[in-house]
Design a protein that fits this description.
It is a single chain. By secondary structure, this protein is an alpha/beta fold. It is built from nine helices and 14 strands. It has a single domain, classed as Purple Acid Phosphatase, chain A, domain 2 (4-Layer Sandwich), CATH 3.60.21. The strands form three sheets. A six-stranded mixed beta sheet has the order 1-5-6-10-12-11. A five-stranded mixed beta sheet has the order 4-3-2-13-14, covered by helices on one side. Strands 7-9-8 form a three-stranded mixed beta sheet. The chain is globular, with a radius of gyration of 18 Å. The model has no long low-confidence stretch (mean pLDDT 96). The structure holds manganese (II) ion. Manganese (II) ion binds next to loops.
């Protein structure tokens, strides 16, 4: 049985680690064997399977692309397990922020209610700790010519593309979606779309769809070749876009559309089963 004090202790320990991580991380190429994981949305069982695979097959590094809570039933277990892993392996695990690591989402998609059901009279205090920890998660990571983030590349409506430096300059500790700068909102919400060239407003009501031209412009400007992202549940657990330069992964069972992860070995990306 978890107590309020356990969550406070867990979050405070993780916060100390996350406070040293910038909004944009750069992964050293001394790491040769990397796992990349899409949305897990409270699917603790699959997260556990992935961590076992990571250990038994001697991967060097593991990146989760966000959306740890909401939707699935075991969200408290899932996030606690990942935060514990982060404390044990701070240099081998990166947890990026997804669009569900925000209070307005948690209030509507399950996590807030799960925290209430479990912690009863302590729930507000417990939720405050999770909320603060979520605000310290980084937004993106670069490994050689591969960029990884939750939703999509950010679109600048006028002038030049955003740069990696702009991503690096996103302030940390912003707790709500409403206070988040546009570039960071887009990173956690945007989606690729093959049938447009540039970009258009998203049906989601927040963020944009981006097409091939906008994608190429951003990638060229930043000397990048591949983008690995999550955020959408495609049949089979993954989908590629833009001549296979964008790989979209989804890793939880919630929608029953299939689960996939990716491995990067010697800078080559393979989509694999889990
Ligand atoms: Mn998402």
């Amino acid at each position: 049985m978890l107590e309020k004090e356990d969550i406070i202790d867990l979050c405070e320990k993780v916060n100390k680690i996350l406070d040293n991580e910038p909004s944009l991380l750069r992964l050293d190429d001394i790491y040769k064997k990397i796992l990349v994981v899409g949305d897990t949305h409270g699917d603790y069982d699959i997260t556990n399977d992935i961590v076992q695979k990571f250990k038994s097959e001697n991967y060097d590094f593991m990146i989760f692309l966000g959306d740890y809570v909401d939707r699935g039933e075991k969200a408290i277990q899932n996030i606690n397990f990942l935060l514990n892993m982060k404390i044990m392996e701070p240099k081998k695990l990166i947890l990026l922020r997804g669009n569900h690591e925000f209070p307005s989402m948690n209030m509507n998609y399950g996590f807030y209610n799960q925290v209430f059901a479990y912690f009863k009279e302590d729930f507000e205090e417990v939720y405050e700790y999770y909320k603060r920890t979520f605000s310290k998660l980084p937004y993106a990571i670069v490994y050689n010519n591969i960029l990884m983030l939750h939703g999509g590349i950010p679109i600048r409506k006028e002038g030049e593309s955003y740069t990696l430096k702009d991503i690096a300059n996103i302030p940390k500790n912003v707790q709500t979606l409403e206070e988040l700068p546009d570039i960071a909102q887009q990173i956690v919400w945007n989606d690729p779309k093959e049938t447009i060239q540039q970009d258009e407003f998203s049906y989601r009501g927040i963020g944009y769809f981006f097409g091939l031209k906008s994608f190429n412009k951003f990638m060229t400007k930043n000397n990048l070749e591949y983008l690995i992202r999550s955020h959408e549940a495609f049949l089979g657990g993954y989908k590629t876009f833009f001549n296979e330069k964008l790989i979209s992964l989804f890793t939880c069972e919630y929608y029953r559309r299939g689960t996939k992860i990716a491995e990067i070995i010697d800078n080559k990306i393979n989509v694999i089963d889990i």
